[in-house]
Request: fold
Amino acid sequence: MSRTLYDLVGLAAGVAFILALKGLSHPKTARRGNLIGAFGATLATLVVFFYANPGSSLPLNNLGWILGAMVVGLAIGVPAARKVQMTQMPQLVALFNGVGGGAAALVAIVEYLHLGPKATTAEVIFTVFTVIVGCVSFSGSVITFLKLQELMTTRPVIFPAGRFIIAATLVSVLGVGVWVVSALGTTPLLVLAALSLLFGVLFVLPVGGADVPIVISLLNAFTGLTVAASGYVLDSVLLIIAGTLVGASGTILTRKMAEAMGRSLFGTLFGAFTAKPQDAAGSGEERPVRSGSPDDVAILLNYARRVVIVPGFGLAVAQAQHTVRELADMMIAKGIDVAYGIHPVAGRMPGHMNVLLAEANVPYEQLAEMDEVNPTFGQTDVAIVIGANDVVNPAAQTSPGCPIYGMPILEVNNAANIIFLKRSMRPGFAGIENELLYDPKTMLLFGDAKASLTKVVSALKAL
Amino acid sequence: MSRTLYDLVGLAAGVAFILALKGLSHPKTARRGNLIGAFGATLATLVVFFYANPGSSLPLNNLGWILGAMVVGLAIGVPAARKVQMTQMPQLVALFNGVGGGAAALVAIVEYLHLGPKATTAEVIFTVFTVIVGCVSFSGSVITFLKLQELMTTRPVIFPAGRFIIAATLVSVLGVGVWVVSALGTTPLLVLAALSLLFGVLFVLPVGGADVPIVISLLNAFTGLTVAASGYVLDSVLLIIAGTLVGASGTILTRKMAEAMGRSLFGTLFGAFTAKPQDAAGSGEERPVRSGSPDDVAILLNYARRVVIVPGFGLAVAQAQHTVRELADMMIAKGIDVAYGIHPVAGRMPGHMNVLLAEANVPYEQLAEMDEVNPTFGQTDVAIVIGANDVVNPAAQTSPGCPIYGMPILEVNNAANIIFLKRSMRPGFAGIENELLYDPKTMLLFGDAKASLTKVVSALKAL
Amino acid sequence: MEPMAIVSIFVLAVFVGFEVVSKVSSTLHTPLMSGANAIHGVILVGAIIVADHSSTNLELGLAVAAIVLATINMVGGFVVTDRMLEMFKGNKK
Amino acid sequence: MEPMAIVSIFVLAVFVGFEVVSKVSSTLHTPLMSGANAIHGVILVGAIIVADHSSTNLELGLAVAAIVLATINMVGGFVVTDRMLEMFKGNKK
Ligand SMILES: NC(=O)c1ccc[n+]([C@@H]2O[C@H](COP(=O)([O-])OP(=O)(O)OC[C@H]3O[C@@H](n4cnc5c(N)ncnc54)[C@H](OP(=O)(O)O)[C@@H]3O)[C@@H](O)[C@H]2O)c1
Ligand SMILES: NC(=O)c1ccc[n+]([C@@H]2O[C@H](COP(=O)([O-])OP(=O)(O)OC[C@H]3O[C@@H](n4cnc5c(N)ncnc54)[C@H](OP(=O)(O)O)[C@@H]3O)[C@@H](O)[C@H]2O)c1
Reply:
């Protein structure tokens, strides 16, 4: 295959990626967009097998190893992607991103070993960039995975003199980077990789759990840039275009996510340096709460004119989306005005609630975005909060010190009655107490969301 | 100045153009966008004076000629742009576009003469493309200018066997193009230019006046592509980027304009081939109309609850935008609900009415777009049509043969009363009769729009 | 520059051109057309380059004509666009 | 490829990347992130190229590891994105 044809196919794959991102930005075309992206990636992968790089010949050297490695990758990636539960999606995305960063770093290292002293300064600089950022992306993603999977604490990990250690690590990373560029050699490069991995860990540890998706998105953009840098070293227009696209769109997306959570990007990444660890269970004192029975809840709902359902992470855990839909349908049949109030960061990934409720075939019109539903709480008789906590916590507006301060919330506190379905008095993801649970107009229905909802549905039927 | 720096400045100018187009797409940033574009263009122009092209040295050869020519261009362009009346803006844009196309063709010709037999085939192909499209753009724009300036008929010019002549011209243009590529030489190139100029004339003649802005926009996109092609021949990234940007955005814009006018792009360009000339004054018979006095109009307005003002080209001609505002303010003071119904192609350029009314400081909220105002005509007591005609002509919806058939209109025929302010029974731009003038619920107030409005204002004051 | 680079730049610029104007409202059609029109006046740069290396009177004459036309296109285009947009100003504060 | 061409391609691709996602609604944040994530899995192409010209066992071993990781990233990414989006399907018809 001629170089021109090879490059043109690469460009076509780049165009497919542009169309993919474009498609993914609109609900109607999102799925098709993803398929176009997959098509472009397949095309790009197939075509390398038919083009002999300078100094090489067809079929590719090490073909068996290459195909074998791809089969292994498929055998790991596909089942993981197929079987993951919706609640664990963010972790998986984080991991996939991390391995991508790792792959880019490895490619850069191999190419560096291969080029040896023939490498131009520009190539070495791009290699150093790829190794640093790829390794940071890899180890950072692993930490976010551990946090989201709750294999480690979801709260900011602050250690004494933390910010000095981080700064020192960063300085050594950069120092070793300069060393690699000036002296060349395998050892400095491996030291660089090791230090970068360490920096990735240190960089993500102090990030509060609630900000983790922002960090994933940022690391995703970083990985894109490493791919673009590899494209320079390997002289591939496709990698340059694809990597840059991901880098740029990922940056915008990160900013948008941060906005949706009401956080400044800067604060997310560096604010944790100064944050003090929060006390998990608040003051710990026992305060009275009003808890009710499924019948109490059913009665309240039966006489309401307008009900807003606020789903959260607990709904996803309990897989209660179908039951909640049943409840909503019953209320609608009774002539009650029902809407779902969707917080952009309810659950553990942006749009999590939309996915879950769409899975349960909840009509799109019943889903109201935060800005839409907030002004209506004044006319709402009952707000029923199902497995959500942080996204309705007024502390986000009232207590400047707390980790979610500044995040816009669903203002259920303006509704006439509030019902909470949760299992205990434990706080949500951000680990801070929710005063609303103690509010006189709040009623708590303890138990797993799905079980509680089933009981409420039966009680409502009986009325 | 080094080549790298020169190229980087070029790229910066390209970025400025991207930002300019982006800015121009939003009302708030439009003006700044235009200034950014002007800045980029200035930068790009200045920098050529400091870079010696291969085989040349600084200062540029023929510097006196170059500067002199620029001064002449400034002396023509700036006053023309400053003094033109708002009603003649479209003509001017057409002319500016045409001279741009002409410049691109000239540049290609000069470079061709300069390169002589050294030119590569690719360079010759791009040269041929630039000469053809640049010349078509030039002569086509001149014809659109003549049409808009009403120095010639605004209606489609259909001549016997027209489509065969056009097709034959196109074939010869392409044939000569191939001749140039294969044989090279100055004569074939000049023949090519001449034939292309002819084709431009023939191509635009059959286009109906109402479609002229679409054609201008299309020619604008074409000129962009010629600039990109020149960029290839002259090895300038800046010209490639700038030209491609204009080509691509111009294409989208053309499609959007055609949509706004309810025309298919294809039909606009080729439909006229088959159209039959329309009879200007309709059947010519004298039918009764109801004409009223300024007092009648004032009384009708005084007792209305909702009035929609529909401005058109005549308002622009009469420069009545300030008077109409005065009238609207008076009605609002009387508690009447007043809105302006803005048709996208009212006037002689898209957005013409917005420009005029903005000039008169009409608050933005009072301007209603077509889709917004159409559903409200049922609740409108009086629709007052000021110097508009085609944009309210129901023939666009009812008579398939007519030149404006398919264009969405402002449905004033649904209002309880219609008032027309015009000077005569003459038709509008498209040259077709408007049945609405004979409608029993229509009242005509003959006279210049500004004079009539002034009288209505006094009459209303007196009430 | 390599053909592949030029093709890539062209394709990407097409996408940028499409995307940046894809949301324009009909109010701004004319100023946008006029602004884009002014941008292609940057062919002035090309006209200056060819005027610089013109070696015959014919070449120079044509190049000078090109400079005049391109300057009219570029400067006139930006000025007229600014004039149009100035009229919107009142309402945008 | 010339540095200038690469810089131009980079700058234009940045604009394309910015523009295409600039209107995304928060509902689609996660699928978009996941889809973009899958796209950078195309580093697989780079991994295959370096595996092809690996000359030592160390190089080959690292390259094979890169292929495994990149394949996971690419294929897993597209599959998981499709799964997410499948759930929206019901309402979009
Ligand atoms: N969407 C994102 O992109 C994203 C990503 C990462 C983090 N976050 C963060 O996650 C939080 C999301 O807020 P949220 O209100 O959705 O969740 P949340 O604050 O974590 O609260 C979830 C609540 O659900 C309850 N729960 C858990 N399992 C349950 C079950 N089986 N049945 C009933 N209740 C159950 C828990 O209380 P019990 O234990 O008492 O039952 C908990 O209070 C925010 O802090 C956000 O910043 C969001
Ligand atoms: N906006 C664009 O982009 C664009 C560009 C080119 C063409 N067009 C076409 O132009 C037409 C626009 O429709 P339109 O309704 O705005 O205009 P129109 O159909 O051309 O009607 C204008 C009316 O204004 C009257 N008039 C002229 N001077 C007047 C004055 N001084 N005082 C009072 N009335 C005066 C004329 O009637 P009298 O002579 O009896 O007074 C004429 O009937 C459409 O056909 C459109 O397709 C639009």
